[in-house]
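Known limitations

Files may contain more than one protein. Parsers should not assume a single record per file. Below, a two-record file is shown to illustrate correct handling: read the sequence, read the token line, then continue until end of file.
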Amino acid sequence: MPHTAQEAPAARLPRMLPADETITGAQSLIRALEEAGADTVFGIPGGSILPAYDPMMDSARIRHVLVRHEQGAGHAATGYAQATGKVGVCIATSGPGATNLVTPIADAHMDSVPLVAITGQVSSKAIGTDAFQEADIVGITMPITKHNFLVTRAEDIPRTIAEAFHLASTGRPGPVLVDITKDALQARTTFVRPTAAHLRGYRPKTRPHPRQIREAARLITSSERPVLYVGGGVLKAGATAELRDLAELTGVPVVTTLMALGAFPGSHPQHMGMPGMHGDVSAVAALQKADLIVALGARFDDRVTGRLDSFAPHAKVVHADIDPAEISKNRYADVPIVGDAREVIAALAAAVREEGGPGDHAAWWRDLNRWRDTYPRGYDLPADGTLSPQLVIERIGRLAPEGTLFASGVGQHQMWAAQFLPHDEPGTWFNSGGAGTMGYAVPAAMGARAGRPDRTVWAIDGDGCFQMTNQELVTCALNDLPIKVAVINNGALGMVRQWQNLFYGARFSNTVLHDGATNAATGSTRGVGSAANRGTRVPDFVLLAEAMGCVGLRCESPDELDAVIDKANSVTDRPVVVDFIVHEDAMVWPMVPAGTSNDDIMAARGVRPDFGDATDD
């Protein structure tokens, strides 16, 4: 369990039921959720799931948060799970209600988030008749769930819920769907408390094989240019203390993926940064020049490796993961280790000590430090005096109260948040990594705040992402969930615009989100911060925020930046939305263009790093 998890309060302990008490399947569902430890559910009622909403009203243990869209329910449950380490729960009715959960389910599947999605289904006799609001949600979600169930009998509900929570939270976490027919919810049954879940064929292997651990330790101590490549599985396993012990014992450099930020302190001298398409030059170079990569809870995805056939050409690979299907899926593992990251890392540290301790990496660190010093993170301030988006995000991070949680949308602002927010504490950074879901930030921040009401929660969003799910601010306002939202407003679909700028001759087709005038010769739009354009912005995010019961603020100048952020931090009784009007042409650097080798990384436009070896131009 990640160390940010909260213990369930004593009031949530299951209550005893008379052996002969008969209840409806719907009542059985609510009691099964209580037994499983659920305390917060995000959802919307509808015809097929309605029987479950009546007994939910009687539960003193479950808080239901009425969202404005089922997608918001799914992302909120994900944010709750990531913030607490517990299973997130969302609920929807049949047909369109269930299909609106598909995106957050797919998102949770890609990012290995423990989620239980409960959907109502038409009555069992109506299945297959194209009944009103019928959809085969089990079939639809089969490729994007860890497992799913169709429940047609009331007596099966408690066991199925127990199994769903067990599957979602053990092994490699993931989403589980439970689809329950309306007649099963309405039928009467005798509640039977579920025993420990024992699923045939499901035995996650958590303890690594000693032989592989010894071989991995031998490679670590004998290699000259090793790297610890850390993925989100380390956070899922709550293995951050063990990771730091192994890193400091071996003196090996550490890179943390987008999903693993915070697993190893970003300010630690051994941290080389984030690898990948928009990663740090030093982190990308460390992997490319390594002779050994120790991958811990990572999956060698394309955003990290670039063109796979040119990735880390001289490196042997130790790959540790709890999911055996990930090992050697993309990159061949010389030493495969199946097991829980916490147990694997602790065993590796012990084995390294038995091997006699760390090797000599002095020459390796001279190269690493040279790359880090020569190509640090940075950005240029706009020449016209408008707001830099990187500066906005950097100042939000520095002025945020201690322990602040950050959720991010997807796009340029996501990469800048990864680069310029502080990532020193595990379990404080949430984003959509694998699926890249626009609209993730606001509902995920809402769920995180529901799970951790003691923490300040900032959502870093773009104006494009924000317009997809901002209706959940009403949910926040009405449910005492005072999140803060930074809208990094450049008037465009920023990341797509960046690609159009770099690869499509600056032809900005359908990426402008405002009505600024367009230069016919260049295709560029006038600055979104210009006086001529401010009065015609649609929507006005300040007015929109206020209409939804939030505080709306706007910042257009670097001179007022800190004061506006401080004001947002001071509001604790309502959600806050800050419309940061930023320069529209800011780009995310470094960058490895899609489909190219990591060797082609650009530190800035037209600037290719020189790594000081014969392969560099």
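...continuing to the second record:
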Amino acid sequence: MRGFPVLRMPEDYAASGRRAVRVTLAAAAGFYLFRYGLGQPVAATYALFSAVAVGGLSHIPGSGRQRAATVTRALPVCWLLVVIGTYLSVRTWCAVVGMLLIGFALAFAAVGGPRPAGAAPGLQLLYILPSFPPYDPGSLPERLIGTTTGLMLFVLVETLVLGEPTPPSYRERAAAAALAAAGTSARLSTPPYALTADDLRAAQHSGEELRPLTVPEAERPAGPAVRDRALTDTGLAIRTLLNRLALLPSPPPSPPGPEIVSVLTAVTGLATATAACLRGGPSPTTSYADLAAARARLSALSADSTASADGGHPASTATRESSATLLRRHAAVLEIADAALTMGPAAALAVHGRRAAVTAAPGRFWYASLRGPSLWWYRIRGHAGQGSVFFQNAVRLALALTAARLVAGVDTLPHGFWAMLATLTLTRTTVDETWSTMRTALTGTFAGALVTAAVLVLVGADTVWYAVALPLWMLFAFTVGPVKGIGWAQGLFTVLVALVFAQLAPPTWHLAEVRMLDVLIGSAIGAVLGLLAWPRGAHDELRRTVADLLRRAAEIVVATSATVAGGPSADDSVPSRPSVVPGHRSLQHAVVLAESAYAQYQSEPTPFGGKGRRAAPRQVDWQASLIAGHHALWGSERLAEPPRHRMGRVAAASVDALGERVAGRMLLVSAALDPGDDTPTASLRPFDPALTELATEPPDAPRLYYATVSWLNALLHDLSRIARVEGASADPGSHPPRG
């Protein structure tokens, strides 16, 4: 006998429904406790809006327990905002100045990672609410009690009600990828010394699991602290290791030499130890030392092979080809070892912080010895300028909120904080999105105002009816609004605030009229500021920062090629002092700005416009440009380290020529992405990296030559993915795809 069919709610409604239940429980419990239980309407208002601020307006990523922990840590900040807002409400100009400073600071806190960025809108509301008249410092205890109660109720329900499974952490993902790298290197160190198609797919899948776009936002290591920075470097190093293992040239008919097998075996050991470390084990000190020793032996063997090839004895063509094949494989294995030697210390820092026992090359982990305040200062200073999208967003939102507070104060709008709330929720990072949001929101608000007016006229002053309807409507609004979009959310919220304020003061249908007027004013201010302040959001900034990144990388490529081709210098006589190519700090800063612009771009819809000289090529792989920047930075650091053996004239000339070709290609792609007023409009033709390969390899090429050529050719492959269509002049009606 079959049972009744089970009705299943769609997943998006189920997720928002669970969140709605928690927000409704916290907000309604605090509101009813103070409004009807203790007879304190001020505390009731703050309890309700505090829970709505962190649960409905904020978008704190993570599971319920993670959100609860974030709100608990932010509790002192919430108290401070309520206190400052209360005392600055004495004069309009005080509240306006406070809104400018606090609005910018809270929005700019997004540089600290996804959790501060997600909590910022709710914290803004906690300042907006008390910054309006009446100026009543005597009610501050009630305000703080209500705020604290609402937040703690939210923490309680997030922890206990409808718990969500916590996704695997980034450390766990990195540990799994490290084990995959260990298995891959183990197969390369045993017969038949090659990878199957299944092995290659598994390595690629493991690397993809560490991409930020595949990782839940709460688990991304995006903060400025040592452990977050080190975990980011760990993921990048593991992905590099997996890619290098997958690209290792096939061995000749004879098995690889014992030195190569020794390095790959040591890589297996270090990758296994790194995975154990990421899961809470000790630092991989012994495995790191074993790999460093094996790498040194292989490097010395490669140098000896180069010296014997340059000994002056004639060699046959077959011998030269065999030697070149061997050196190419040596260079590839050394790159594998370098990636693994970066992975181990990074993982140790990510788990044990400054207590990590493994040390790496000087300068690689510059942040390891710095304290938290210094790292925060570096992060803030790096984004303190109009080249950062975090700075742009903070300025735009702060100016919009300030203008809304000024208008509300000068015109003495009733419920003027609704205008600021509309500015806060409707201001977007592009003017097109702001206008679209404004139209949809006004339509929804108008519909909600009609429903509100009808309800207030029909029900009148029957407070019991509003008290019964509030939690039901709140549950419905917070379930449907996030799924149906901003229009539904604004309309439903319009009715919700009417149900709240109808229990605080005698209601009239004019409440709906005031709500409509406030939303209109707030959204108009947001639209105007969106038009005036960086109206294209991260789209233009992404092209500009990526173009600057490629220009910086081109400088590094030329300088590194010249340094390598020039052989040892006087400074290289001191082994403890690595040779650093000038410009590394500038390239590293350019990479940081491009990454932040790319992260913002990923959250925006297709940018507006597309006409004129600012149009971008139709096919742009933005992530490939970031990979090229990292590759240029790390490869340059590795190749510039002493000791360096002097090249023959032919090999040096070949490295110089190839480096100049790569740099020239970088400059061409940079100009195509961000053309100037007088940039030539000729199309950027498809580029085949194979065209850069020399017809014959120099007979005097040392190991360093093959390592440099491998690095430059890899950069060319990255560049070929950035702009890969014929004709870089964009179709006026087209837009670049989503990275």
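Parsers that stop after the first record will miss the second one. For reference, the second record is described as follows. Residues 307-318, 569-579, 604-618, 724-739 have pLDDT under 50 and may be disordered.
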